[in-house]
From TrEMBL:
Residues that span the membrane, as ranges: 22-40, 56-74
Source organism: Microbacterium aurantiacum
Pfam families (alphabetical): PLDc_N
GO cellular component, one term: plasma membrane
Ranges for domain Cardiolipin synthase N-terminal: 34-75
Record's protein name: PLD nuclease N-terminal domain-containing protein
Length: 78
């Protein structure tokens, strides 16, 4: 897909400043870490400590930011 200038849309990603690249990289790492912690917690909890079947939470956790947050807020019995 080309833009008006004749460049591809992926080429505009290279126009980010180094600070923006580091910021986006850090945000990405935090997102991956959040999902990893949710998967780790899910795998180490007993079935009776999790609301609903544990396999049902796997695709939920894969949804960026919302999935791990939903698991920690609503998936764990307190």
């Amino acid at each position: 897909m080309a833009t008006d200038e004749g460049t591809t849309m992926t080429a505009t990603k290279t126009n980010l400043s180094p600070t923006a690249r580091v910021a986006f990289g850090a945000i990405g790492l935090v997102q991956v870490a959040f999902a990893f912690l949710a998967f780790w917690d899910l795998s180490h909890r007993d079935d009776d400590e999790v609301r609903g079947p544990k396999p049902a939470w796997v695709p939920v956790i894969l949804v960026n930011w919302i999935g791990p947050a939903a698991y920690f807020l609503f998936g764990i019995r307190r």
